[in-house]
Amino acid sequence: MEKKAHEGSGYELPASAVEFIRQVVQRMGYRRKARQEVQAELTAHFEDELRRVTDPNEREQRARQLIEQFGDPKLLAILCRRGKIRCRSPWAKTMVGTLQAAAVFLVLFGLYLIWFVSGRPAVKVDYLAMLNRMSRPEIVESDNAWPYYQKAIALVVEPGPELGDMTAFKKPWDPNHWDFSRLPGEVQGAIEEWVQANQPAWEAFATAGSKPYLYKPYEYHSSSGASWLMNIKVPDLRLVRDLARVGQWRSRVHMAQGKTAEALGDCLAVAHAGPHWQHTPTLVEQLVGIAFASAADREILQIAGRQAPSAEMLADVQRELAGLYRGPYPSVDMQYERIAFLDLVQHLFTDDGLGGGHLIPSQVAGMAATKDSDYEELAENPVLRTGLSLIHARRDETVAAACRIFDREKEMASLSPYERRARQVVTGDDLRDSLPKYRYALVDLMLPALNRAAEIGFRGKVMHEATLTILALQRYRLEKGRYPASLAELMPAGYLDVLPSDPYSDKPLSYRVADDTFTLYSVGEDFDDDGGTVSTDQNRRPRMWGDDGDAVFWPVGP
Fold this sequence. Notes:
single chain, mainly alpha, three-stranded antiparallel β-sheet, two-stranded antiparallel sheet, 5 strands, 57% helix, elongated
């Protein structure tokens, strides 16, 4: 039986020839046009060879001979395909090659994206255990203040809304509120009632301050279930600050009653709590400790200026304040912030691949869901999260960048604001700001403003030294009948061990004597000596640290 193999040819080929051509064309697996061309060429070849053969049997026999000469149809299909490829024009070859490369790239990128998005963190280091080892001193349990702080925190009575809304209570540092006896009667009554309600808490707080050490083990918040160092439980610092405020108002109540010794005792109880919290590992707790110590110093200076304590009383207070710190005044320590960041990295990055692993897109959501408007949208958009992960620095680069910042801040913590300015040093905050924002998004988001914390530490230090110096000056006058002409006279006379350094200059605090009084001040944030002119806020109210005028420690009050 013969079939027409090529439409319009006018010839019918034997069935064997038609089937052979069909198999070759089918096995080419190439473009339709190329297959049609091969079909036409093979059909034409068979037609030419069989044109003079009229007998059907001879035509079939001759067709089979031709098929044997062509060989295996599969091999012929491959040869035909290669021939068509070689005959393509250069632009067609380029286009096809480009499309093939793009297809391969898309397949490989898709596989990479699946691997990238499905990455999992490998948490290998127990940073919580490291933190607890780092902060634990070698002490006997009876010397630990923490059980008493716990008791005080549990007993503290928070101020009610009525008391909390009173201006004097909200702004105890305002000079108009220093003198308790001049406050309105209803304010005095509300404060005294609150102080009395906190008597049990205050006693536990004062006992805690009498202990030589504070050690409290840290643990994760059980409610969240997240074992991240940034999720550790810290004491309710709001309640801790309330305890210090109890001492502050107790002192003022005692001052109004003329009980100078009791008022100073209240201040010293708060002062003793300062070093405890300054030596805790977290920066936020250290700042609370600095605030305690500075608040106690300011209250003591108010008492010295208003109550005229005896020389013996002043000497006792000075001795106790000088003994608060075993060694120099502590600078802020950022070890917790460092290891908390390293712990965060091991939860957000894989630990394999080039550069030590990549940022996991699914983990970016929690990182980006912050108040920072630049990243808020990332928390909800999986495409943006994946995009950020793709461009973010790898794990090793991220850790290296953060460690450079922490190393620089550790170095900066020992330099006063004046030394930083004089040397024009690049701070850790400067290093952070110089990094590409989105490539180092984790560093940009999660590292605190470390530079400011170090400056707060220096302000606490100068407040402490200024208080010791003022107590020494007051003692000197009571015993010598006059103030010394210079601070240097205090040292050989045994009133002071070290001159108070000004963190905003390369000299000691400025000291001037006039009319049987003196002025002791720092040149302040503007680094200019304004002769003891007090720095003020926008409402012309005096403030300790401002960008105009000096930070005046004495005289105190309005």
